[in-house]
Amino acid sequence: MTATLRQTANTVANSMIEGASMASALIGGAAGAYLGYQLAPTAWTDGTRILFAGAVAVVGAVAIDGLAELVLAPMRRLMRTRSPLPPIRPSAPAPAPAATLDEALAQVIAATEEDAAHRAASASLRIDDGDNFLRREERWRGYEDGEASFYLAPGVVLHHRAERDEYKHHFTLLTGDGEQPVAITGMEQIRHHLAARAAGLPAVPVTADSDKDDVLDDDLTGIHAV
Predict the structure, then answer these.
(1) Residues 173/186, Cβ–Cβ less than 8 Å
(2) Angle at 147 between CA 142 and CA 151, to 5 degrees
(3) Contact 226, 195 (CB under 8 A)
(4) Whether 190 contacts 184, CB under 8 Å
(5) Are 168 and 178 in contact (CB under 8 A)?
(6) Distance of alpha carbon 137 from alpha carbon 160, whole angstroms
(7) How far apart are CA 86 and CA 139, in angstroms?
(8) 3-class secondary structure, 189
(9) Are 31 and 60 in contact (CB under 8 A)?
(10) Which of 46, 57, 146, 214 is most buried per CB count within 10 Å?
(11) What order of strands is seen across the sheet that includes strand 182-184?
């Protein structure tokens, strides 16, 4: 889910919660008014019966709204405690029209690099559900070929490449010491690799059917905080 879709979903959810609260109060008030008017003694004047019905309507609205809050309050707390979206950066002023072809090329290259960093940060939701680490666009460096990299540690970089035609995003862990690139599909793989390097162990890729992974995970027990 993109940041825009998530923000829209949160807005809709909050609107539904507030709408349900208002509806419960209206229903309670209407029911109270009807019952109050029906239960008022017929010997009373119409004005007195209406005043009585109004008082019962207020009591009914408060009572029903209070019952509804038993359900709506936890939902409100859940919405407030969800991970906030990263702040939307203000749009930079558009560059002045290029006076030369070289200047235009430089502007397009800069825009391409920014676009690559933005797409990498947005696509990181596929592997970082927490949405609070890889989603930081300012930490991505875009390149003019449309690819981008995220510095993790000395000699370790997360690389992003997109296939626009097929809407695919590829994340790969690259190192500067000749190790084979590792395809990344989840944050646990990055943790696995960095913890192995910190412990001086072979940083074999995390796979479902690798015996070496089981041995390595045993060796890494107790150093998850690295």
Answers:
(1) no
(2) 60
(3) yes
(4) yes
(5) no
(6) 13
(7) 13
(8) helix
(9) yes
(10) 57
(11) 140-142, 148-153, 156-163, 168-175, 182-184
Residue 145's identity, in one-letter code, is D
CA 152 to chain centre: 21
Position 164, amino acid: R
> Over the stretch 46-98, which tens digit does the pLDDT of each residue have?
888 888 888 887 787 777 877 777 776 777 666 655 545 445 555 567 778 88
* Residue range 26-40, pLDDT digits in tens: 787 788 788 887 888
With a CB cutoff of 8 Å and minimum separation 6, the contacts of 85 are 3, 6, 7, 131
Give one DSSP letter per residue of 75-143, joined into a string.
HHHHHHHSPPPPPPPPPPPPPPPPSSHHHHHHHHHHHHHHHHHHHHHHHGGGT-TT-SSTT-GGGEEE-
d(CA 146, CA 120): 9
Residue type, position 95, single letter: P
With vertex at residue 17, the alpha carbon angle to CA 13 and CA 23, rounded to the nearest 5 degrees, is 140
Write the single-letter amino acid at 196. A
> Using CA atoms, how far apart are residues 201 and 77, in angstroms rounded to an integer?
43
Task: Tell me 1's DSSP state.
Answer: -
Amino acid at 85: L
Cα–Cα distances (Å) from 176 to 33, 142, 155, 191, 203, in that order, read: 76, 19, 5, 18, 13
For the record, the structure tokens of 56 come out as 């019962």
∠ CA 42-46-52, rounded to 5°:
80
- Quote the pTM value: 0.50
